[in-house]
Amino acid sequence: MGADRFRPFSRFTPPPLPTSPSFWRSPLRGPRLTALLGVVLLAGITLLFVTGLLSYAAYNPDLAGGVNDKTPDKGLLGFYLFSWPTGPRWLYRLTQGVHVTLGVVLVPVLLAKLWSVIPKLFTMPPARSVGHALERVSLLLLVGGALFEFVTGLLNIQLDYVFPGSFYPLHFYGAWVFIGAFAVHVGLRMPRTVRALRESTDPRAADDDTGLVALRPAPPTVSRRGALGLVGAGSLLLFLTTVGQSLGGRWRRTALLAPHGGADPGGGPNGFQINKSAAGVGIRARDIGDDWRLTVEGGGPGAPPSGGWRRVRLSRAELLRMPQYEAALPIACVEGWSTEDLRWSGVRLRDLAALVGGGGAPPGVLVESVQLSGAFRRAALRDNQVRDPRSLLALRVGGADLSPDHGYPARIIVPAAPGVLNTKWVARLTFGEV
Ligand SMILES: Nc1nc2c(c(=O)[nH]1)N[C@H]1C(S)=C(S)[C@@H](COP(=O)(O)O)O[C@H]1N2
Ligand SMILES: [Mo]
Question: How far apart are CA 147 and CA 153, in angstroms?
Fold first, then answer.
């Protein structure tokens, strides 16, 4: 005790800081743990990327000069865009439900993977060669890109568009940077991963060439299987408390992690999810009262009616006197929540196109709401969406008039489309090239 106190300064070695690889002593780290987590992420992130691109294509980002999407200079990165189909009607419910649920479920796996390689963050010297330097830069983009995509995605679904209007470009460009670094990383690490999974035991520190195995491992507090079980249990818990929002209906109550903002939808035919209430986006009673009229015209956005197009103004009563059609369709939001099929009824979009157009195949349409500001007050629909007989200007749902919060007097509903294209409180439809 006394001797300890007077130990000369020079003999005292301070404990390593977290910035030193030797600080990290868990005996669980090694190529096998990293490889197992890596394979799960390889499958998961591939699916996330594909469903993410689909979500982007579903948004009709190429229409109407950027009404739906303002991502500047998509250029080559928009190469894969295609006309999003209108069937099966649950298509976007599925792809976006998978995208969001999987993103949430992969969080523990991502964190565990980062934990498993953390000592390598601090290896010195930072770069041994040009090749090594390039590899480390790609790792920076990989880890930074992963964190960026997960954080922007989670913020978007939890806080209801915290970056209004800018979420799409952020998440879109972030995804391309991330997936580029991800592809390089997978290419570089695949041989080592395969080797680690084939070998039944980890190399001891002495013959470890991965730098993952601790030189002076601490005694284990949990087995590797136990640690993986913990990660799996975390993911399962997230799954069970998230997936209900994509299933909708009574399952929604199980989605404890889903955002519970928005207005209380109450019961009855209008008793389904409301993100943006009428009051919340500044819709006044007189905007949607008896004086409300729908303007239907043609000729393309901004163009004066010409080329055989007419302009008509219709009251809700006049719309109700037109042939009414029913369609059982869900609403599926980019945030991952969706409703079950709801029974909508109203006027077909293609009938409204025929009302103002001079025959021919129904073109696309620009939809504008009475709402004066906000990101979703306008939306462009493609010709295949206008053509589908289930695409409606809906006046009623589940046998009742639409409630003000669900878009009374009239809203759009299109099969398989993202919820954001289902404009509420519609004021004007402009058919034509969009
Ligand atoms: N006019 C208008 N229509 C709108 C929106 C909006 O903010 N304004 N939100 C859209 C979005 S993002 C979705 S998912 C669906 C359903 O949203 P809700 O839950 O607010 O009804 O309506 C769409 N229609
Ligand atoms: Mo949405």
Answer: 10
Tell me how far apart the alpha carbons of residues 388 and 350 are, in angstroms, rounded to a whole number.
8
**Protein residue with its CA nearest to atom 10 in ligand 1:** 420
Q: Which residue has the higher pLDDT, 309 or 29?
A: 29
pTM: 0.93
Nearest CA to ligand 1 atom 11: 420
Count of helix runs (H) and strand runs (E) in the chain: 11, 10
pLDDT by residue (tens digit) across 95-138? 999 999 999 999 999 999 999 999 988 887 888 999 889 888 88
**ω into 85 cis (within 30 of 0):** no
User: Which atom of ligand 1 approaches the CA of 418 most closely?
Assistant: 14
- The number of the ligand 1 atom at minimal distance from the alpha carbon of 370 is 1
Question: Where does 310-359 show beta strands of DSSP type E?
Answer: 312-314, 325-329, 342-348
Query: Does the C-beta of 288 come closer than 6 Å to ligand 1?
Result: no
Question: How far apart are the C-alpha atoms of 171 and 152, rounded to whole Å?
Answer: 7
Q: How far apart are CA 222 and CA 306, in angstroms?
A: 75
Q: Is the CB of 411 under 6 A from ligand 1?
A: no
